[in-house]
Known about the structure:
GO molecular function: 4 iron, 4 sulfur cluster binding; deaminated base DNA N-glycosylase activity; metal ion binding
Number of strands: 14
Low-confidence stretches: 52-59, 268-275
Number of domains: 4
Structural class: alpha/beta
Domain Uracil-DNA glycosylase-like: 307-466
Organism: Pontixanthobacter luteolus
CATH architecture of the largest domain: 3-Layer(aba) Sandwich
Helix content: 25-40%
Distance between the termini: 32 Å
Keywords: 4Fe-4S, DNA damage, DNA repair, Hydrolase, Iron, Iron-sulfur, Metal-binding
CATH topology of the largest domain: Uracil-DNA Glycosylase, subunit E
Shape: globular
Radius of gyration: 27 Å
InterPro entries: DNA_repair_put, DUF4130, UDG_Type-4/5, Ura-DNA_glyco_family4, Uracil-DNA_glycosylase-like, Uracil-DNA_glycosylase-like_sf
Number of helices: 17
Amino acid sequence: MTALRQPTDTAYYTVSMLEPDDFAFWRDKARQLVQCGIPPGQVSWTEPGSSGDLFAGEGTQLPVPPADVPQIRASKRFLALAKNVVLHSDPERFALLYALLWRLQANPRIMEDKTDLQVRRVEELDKNVRRDSHKMHAFVRFRRLERDDGEDHYVAWFEPDHHIVRANAGFFKRRFANMHWSILTPKGCIHWDGDTMRESPPAERGDAPSSDPAEELWLKYYASIFNPARLKVSAMMSEMPKKYWKNMPEAALIPELVAGAQKRESQMVAAGELTFDERPETLGAIEKAIDRCRKCPIGELANHSVMGEGPQDAALMIVGEQPGDQEDQARRPFVGPAGQLLDVHLQKAGIERSKAYVTNAVKHFKYVQRGKRRIHQSPAAKEIDTCRWWIEAEREIVKPKVVLAMGASAARGILGRTVSISKVRGQPVPLEDGSELWITAHPSYLLRLEGEAQEKQVKLFDADLAAVRERLAELAV
């Protein structure tokens, strides 16, 4: 391989970013500088409106790489992190990324070093941006603006910590495709008219409406669905920090609802409206609770509850549909033929089952008795929805970064709705807690196939597992 060009002088170069979130611009300039052999110490990166490096001056025009210069080394993990880190508000992010890119040329595996300070800093910035995006998805509240032309237009105010507005425009476009809306922020605004997305300069809080005619109805609805039996104040404050409350109309109700939670819970119990006790806070407590659960007909059968197993802090949660006959007898998930097949394919994909938390959407074995045999039956939608209480409790405790749902029942257990596996497999589905859901077929489905049909589905299954493994590597901290 031809070596990268070595610098012939100690010229100082300044790169003025056109936009604070322009990854493509940074990537092109960084590639050019690395190919010309310009070390990080000779480059200054400045944002729009920034005074830049005090000692940088105007800098020198960037050199042109020679024609025979080799391609730049940049791993998929680095690129995935860099695209997010560029959105951070840290003024040193561009220089940090360039320094790491420079080092990647000599050590392509540097991103695997969890003790490296620059790698850890990049991962920290990526995590901050992902959290900020999650908060934007969760806490943007639109208010209807009454216009003279009679058209409904919805306006929201949000205060992001980082430059995430443009990057998240697609999320709101897909979610509110039929609305005309604007999201105003101090870092720039986005507007959607049903056909075109446009941008405008930063706004002020007073530019957004403070209320709308439908707000009273929303507050009544929010108060009616507030479940005191599921209230955990510390968890709520962690997920919904007070800094966002001023932009959320329902936040004004929270102190009163929290204060009256115990009284309201007692009233609900007396009225028979409370279907479950307070959700268990440990995996051991969940195991004891599901053993006593009789909230659906499956729990009334002559069977055992089957709790999930694996590390409590697992990055990956694997969710099956329900225990089978062997799982019911062993009281462990995925120990029968489907589980043995799963182990083979997990090993093939490079995923260690021992490091994953493995569970099922339904906690008891559903069957019909035929002679001495118990014949498996698929759980009904209502039975899956009833058991969501337990799978959500497991997710709250384990907090996986990636959830792999195997089979339609498992997917419904996570999403609360039925999806087509063929339409959603191979792509992440964002979940409200910031994790990702990946959906694939259940191993038992592969066992029922033969010939070319089985070969085709096995390839798809392996591809799904490989994508999950790659995503776990990208999200590893």
